[in-house]
From TrEMBL, chain A:
Gene3D superfamilies documented for this protein: C-terminal (heme d1) domain of cytochrome cd1-nitrite reductase (2.140.10.20)
The name this protein goes by in its record: Cytochrome D1 domain-containing protein
Native species: Vogesella margarita
Protein origin, superkingdom: Bacteria
PROSITE patterns the record matches: PROKAR_LIPOPROTEIN
Pfam families noted in UniProt: Cytochrom_D1
Automatic annotation (TrEMBL), chain B:
Superkingdom of this protein's organism: Bacteria
Protein name: Cytochrome c
Lipid metabolism is among the record's keywords: no
SUPFAM superfamilies per the UniProt record, alphabetical: Cytochrome c (SSF46626)
Keywords recorded for this protein, A-Z: Heme, Iron, Metal-binding, Signal
Domain Cytochrome c: 41-119
PROSITE patterns the UniProt entry points to: CYTC
Residues in the signal sequence: 1-31
Keyword hit for Nucleotide-binding: no
Protein species of origin: Vogesella margarita
Length: 393, 121
């Protein structure tokens, strides 16, 4: 209720601002970002130069688990909602320009290396659908059905170079690589028996490696796309041996940000640890004990430090790992239910979303001081426009 | 007082009926009594937990995600006891964790009742 009142007040404020000016001033989008307001089904367009909200776009459906990708000109975002909706938002104009309902239950998406194909990953019906990035017209439908005819939920969709996409099948335990060079007739390469219940996946920022985290067993599944004939291999297998796996109250999220310098930083599912792998041999290099079960493990753009947030009931805390010493050097309590973190392009600040305090917190990464707090209704994901030019984002 | 035979049978039937009704009512009362509504503040906290933290897998609108849907329609016909057990102790072989550390048995019964009635937020 309080959030709604605040929301209304903010909307009124924006309307007043807009009424004051005629044509909006010409501006770039390089310092813009989009914040998901999950309960309201809206997004905020924010500026990470002025640390302010520029506009709010509503009517995007059920955003309870939403993510988005940028068009390559960083003017539009494609927001993937839980209800299977894809909403194309013009962030400069602050307007919803297209929307399709393409599945019953969706989890996220990706955009092709040429920027022309938007791919959605769906839970129900499980599969991947390809859409024209301009019009959101359907190009292809790839159901995630295994050889036994069983459907799977699709997780961990990531773009690879050459208009390819990689994704994982939760139930079947498979990784599929989709070659969409011919968008209406994509070709699928399947890697079977990669491990039990892959829960998410990531592509490295050079697009060479695809890694799926496994829920059903310890370890991760690694595909080197430069050597596809070598198949998928297990890395960090048996990391929980000798320890009881704790119940998992929130699945971790993987993305290319966890690869930094010589290392990959990965959540140990069911354990209060961040796993560190050498990114050449993919052998375990270290384990860093942390406050709770990691959800996001994100390297600063410099790769010098890694920020970690945690699953319920430890989600009021964020920790910072110093990479050279592999030690936690800072523990922050920025708000209740910290769901997501996003660095500015060069990492001078990090934005955090505090779901239960209805706010965004902007923290200076050099001093750990809070620069600003901004109101947001039940915020979750924060996505800055530098993603437009990055593979695997 | 002596009643005609037909009336005696009737009164016996009435008695039986009354007994059945009483039994039925007492069971209904019992079933209602088993569902204890938490204090308002705790109820709000539980609804928040359901929406946000259960919702992480089951969806904010409870229409499902990695976890199955928790709508009244999806839970129709499922025994409340086994749903309460799943909520408290998790479901081995699936990603459903045990919530016993955070929720009492009475609270779990109340939450399942809310879900099955379609009263959840």
């Amino acid at each position: 209720m309080k959030a709604m009142t605040r929301l209304a007040a903010m909307a009124a404020g924006t309307a007043l601002l807009l009424a004051g000016c005629g044509t909006p001033a010409l501006r770039g989008s390089g310092d813009l970002g989009v914040v998901i307001e999950r309960a309201a089904g809206s997004v905020q367009v924010v500026s990470n130069s002025s640390n302010t909200m520029l506009s709010r776009v509503a009517g995007l459906g059920d955003l309870s688990h939403a993510s988005l990708v940028y068009s390559r000109d960083a003017r539009y975002v494609y927001v993937f909602g839980r209800d299977g909706g894809i909403s194309k938002v013009d962030i400069l104009a602050g307007k919803l320009v297209a929307r399709v309902l393409q599945a019953g239950n969706s989890i996220g998406g990706a955009i092709s290396s040429d920027g022309r194909i938007v791919a959605a990953q769906n839970y129900s019906p499980g599969g991947v659908k390809l859409f024209d990035a301009d019009t959101l017209a359907l190009l292809a439908d790839i159901p995630a059905v295994d050889d036994n005819g069983q459907p799977s939920k699709v997780v961990g969709l990531a773009d690879l170079p050459g208009n390819r996409f990689a994704f994982s099948l939760f139930e079947a335990g498979e990784i599929w690589v989709l070659d969409a060079a011919t968008p209406r007739a994509p070709q699928v390469t399947k890697y079977r028996n990669v491990g039990r219940n892959p829960y998410d996946g990531l592509a490295s920022s050079d697009g060479r490696y695809y890694i799926a985290g496994l829920y059903g067993e310890d370890g991760l599944a690694l595909l080197d796309t430069w050597q596809p004939q070598a198949g998928v291999r297990r890395i960090l297998g048996g990391y929980g041996q000798g320890q009881d796996k704790q119940p998992v109250y929130k699945m971790p999220h993987l993305r290319g940000w966890s690869l930094a310098g010589d290392y990959a930083f990965l959540p140990a599912i069911g354990h209060h640890e961040v796993l560190v792998a050498d990114n050449r041999s993919w052998r375990e290099a270290a384990r860093v004990p942390v406050y709770g079960q990691p959800v996001f493990v994100m390297a600063e753009p410099s790769g010098r430090r890694v920020w970690v947030n945690f699953a319920f009931p430890h989600n009021d805390t964020v920790q910072v790992i110093d990479v050279p010493t592999m030690q936690v050097i800072k523990t922050l309590k920025p708000g209740r239910a910290i769901l997501h973190m996003e660095f500015t392009a060069r990492g001078d600040a990090v934005w955090l979303s505090s779901r239960d305090d209805d706010k965004l917190v902007v923290i200076d990464t050099a001093t750990f001081q809070t620069r600003r707090e901004l109101p947001a209704a039940n915020p979750s994901g924060i996505f800055f426009s530098w993603r437009a030019g990055r593979m695997g984002m | 007082m002596k009643l005609p035979a037909c009336c005696r049978t009737l009164s016996a039937k009435c008695l039986l009926l009354a007994c059945c009704a009483a039994l039925f009512i007492s069971e209904a009362v019992h079933a209602d009594n088993a569902i204890v509504s938490p204090a308002p503040q705790r109820a709000a906290a539980l609804r928040h937990l359901l929406r946000e933290d259960c919702g992480a897998c089951h969806g904010l609108t409870l229409n499902g995600g990695l976890g199955s849907p928790l709508t009244a329609a999806a839970l129709a016909g499922k025994p409340a006891d086994s749903l309460v057990a799943t909520l408290l102790d998790g479901r081995p072989g699936s990603a459903m964790p045990p919530w016993r550390p955070f929720i009492s048995e009475a609270e779990a019964q109340w939450l399942i009742h809310q879900l099955q009635q379609g009263d959840a937020p």
